[in-house]
Amino acid sequence: MSEIASLTSSPTTERTVNQANANLGKEDFLKLLTVQLRYQDPLNPMENTEFIAQMAQFSSLEQLQNMNRSLDRNLGSEQQLHTAFQNNLATSLVGRTVEIPTIEVDWTGEEPAQIGYRLDDGARTAQMQILDGRGQLVREFELDPSETHGVVRWDGVSRLDSEVPEGAYRVLILAEDHGGGRVRAEALKQVEVEAVRYDATGASIWAGGQRLSLEDLSGVIADN
After folding, report:
1. Residues 6+ apart with CB under 8 A from 97
2. Domains of the chain: which residue ranges?
3. Helix, strand or coil for residue 43?
4. Tens of pLDDT, residue by residue, the chain (224 residues)
5. Range 97-220 classified under CATH 3.40.630.40
6. Pairwise CA distance, residues 167 & 186, whole Å
7. What are residue 122's phi and psi, to 5 degrees?
């Protein structure tokens, strides 16, 4: 009996039991506690305070496990609700006009091109630059930095007051704060949502000939 008591109370065994408590469930904990009581040294039995402390530890373990199960169920329900909400929202966008980030503007030679933009707060200066295929500046517009959203209409006229050829041009939005730091800004274009498709990752929006997510959208244009 003394050998058994010595074995169960050795530092190595205590470390093993502690590691087991960190990974095992409440039933395993009870088994370990039962074995510890069975093989305790009758000449040096476990004190009441120590026994109560271990039972309290068991009670805390059981409560934590119950809380974890409850949280897992709640998180699963919230995720399902979030996915359903996103799917319904994406479906409602079919046929609607939305704004998405862009780096290009098309000049058709007819109606003025409408180029939207978005600025983060804190901008002191902001410009819109239109570049040709060689990266040369074609036209520049000063923007109101106090407006976080806006639209510029470009009539296809260059900064030299000559009409440019039809085609795709690059558009950049540059903004700086009062310290000269870069402020996040982007050009926007309007496209119509053609379809919504679903897969294991959720809903995907097809607009302007490309696949998008809800996070890619900068805004939804009101119906006329």
Report:
1. 190, 191, 192, 193, 220, 221
2. 2-89, 97-220
3. coil
4. 444 343 344 454 454 444 444 455 556 666 766 766 666 656 555 555 555 555 556 566 666 766 777 666 666 566 666 556 566 667 777 888 888 889 999 999 989 999 999 999 999 999 999 999 999 999 999 999 999 999 999 999 999 999 999 999 999 999 999 999 999 999 998 888 888 877 776 778 888 788 888 778 877 776 65
5. no
6. 21
7. 100, 5
